[in-house]
Predict the structure.
Amino acid sequence: MKLIFKKISLLFTSMVLGLLSVGPAAAEYPDRPINVVIPFAPGGPSDVVSRLVATAMSRELNQPMVILNRPGAGGNIGMGQVANSKPDGYTVLMTSIAVTQNPAVFRNMPYDPLKDLVAVSVFGESATLISVSAASVPAKTLGEFIAMLKKAPPSAYNIAGGGGQRMSMEKFMMQFDVKLEQVSYNSGGAAAFALMAGDVHLQLSDAATMAPPYKSGKVKILAVANETRLPLFPDVPTTKEAGYPDYLDKLHFGMYVNAGTPKDILAKLYEAARRAVASPEMQASLASLNFVTSNMTQAQSDSFYRAEVVRWREIARKANIPPSD
């Protein structure tokens, strides 16, 4: 009998120890809100598109996506925050073309763009609008404006960009062989206000940012740097129609995370973004902004991101564009 009790006691003890050794089941991602870092101030194209996508993604993931605007240093502050965050999928970056352009023009990046970030999804792109202030620019066509710039000294006119658009401005000046004073703002929206006031002469931006200023009559859109006209601005000619077929320019938007993020989390984030952007509601919202969605996979998105970083760096090198601190 004692032997039987001893065996039962040993069996019970081993069962208890076995249960104690098994920790709590790992929570399935995501089990809490996700922070969405937008590296620019509210009101610009990155902010508008990111908020739309984040709202739709929160429904797909069944978790809130908390918007955190972190402007500064051309977007590098917010981008660096995500690149140096914990690689657990709870801090994501949503931004524009600045994520691929900044490494070409900043001497001291707070992270290594090819080692510290990975692209989750490229949502799509929006064609660039060449817009001028109605208050300070008399030109009515792109040709008239370029002629004005060629005759004027470099400091006579300026060009504004939202955060992280220095390479877009440099590209414009190289393409048209003109010189303008560059003015940077924390967002495309802030630059647009300056354009409306006449403090800025030229801005390169997207349809979402330019629609209200254009409707107000305080901004003239001289051309769209696209292959076709935009439905939102049917009277605005393409750069080809304006006599400059070689100048095309688009802003792409996407989502990025710390490069150490596990692949299963990358896959969940990508799928949520894909489903969100593909929904009829989102397609209608983005189309109203003249935003063309992408069908890139996660791997294709990351390959595109890395190729763009290299491409912009090479453009800056060939053009001898001095880096900023």
